[in-house]
Write a structure and sequence with these properties.
The structure is a single chain. A two-stranded antiparallel sheet has the order 1-2. The protein is mostly helical. The longest helix has 54 residues, at 69-122. The chain has helices at residues 2-8, 10-39, 43-62, 69-122, 140-144, 155-170, and strands spanning 129-130, 152-153. Helix 2 (10-39) packs antiparallel against helix 4. It is built from six helices and two strands, in the order H-H-H-H-E-H-E-H.
Length: 174
């Protein structure tokens, strides 16, 4: 009896797995941003450097270039040096951010592939659901692949249908 209940819920298990994977795919950029913000603490240092540059530029604006050329040139070099340092800092952080997002995407797609492979493995020889043969008449063998059960819907066909339906449902949210 429990075997029959598990088979009866197979279509729902596959549909919910596909739904969760597609939902997570939509939320992946937000999750990546949150994780990268948690891992990167340099943003505070960058804002401090920006404020220092802004303060030095304000001070530079108060200095007369003709009257105090040496002081003006020194401050200008200091601003340029700090700006270059900030640029390299931002480039490093951006590269780290891209690397973190790349790793999160790769991990997600590996886990998704493992889930799909396990579902295919589990339902390879038995149909996910069985429908009346008349409903599937011209495409019955294709729909039943790989099980070959008359009126059965195979895992490959069910995954394709679920992916398309879920993608259409979630399109407004992406």
């Amino acid at each position: 009896m429990s075997e029959q209940r598990a088979d009866a819920g197979a279509w729902l298990l596959v549909l919910s797995s596909v739904f969760l994977c597609n939902l997570l795919k939509i939320l992946l950029p937000s999750c990546s941003s949150i994780v990268s913000k948690l891992l990167q603490k340099d943003v505070e240092q960058e804002s401090q450097m920006r404020s220092e540059i802004q303060n030095m530029k304000q001070e530079l604006a108060t200095i007369s270039m003709m009257d105090e050329f040496a002081r003006y040139a020194r401050l200008e070099r200091k601003i340029n040096k700090m700006t270059d340092k900030l640029k390299t800092h931002v480039k490093t952080r951006t590269a780290q951010l891209a690397k973190i997002k790349w790793v999160i995407n790769i991990v997600f797609y590996i886990l998704q592939a493992a889930l799909m492979i396990s579902l295919i493995w589990k339902y390879y020889s038995e149909p996910v659901t069985v429908l009346p043969s008349k409903w599937l008449a011209p495409l019955e063998r294709l729909v039943a692949f790989p099980t070959g059960v008359a009126g059965g819907v195979g895992i490959t066909c069910w995954l394709v249908v679920c992916n398309k339906v879920v993608a259409i449902m979630l399109h407004p949210f992406s």
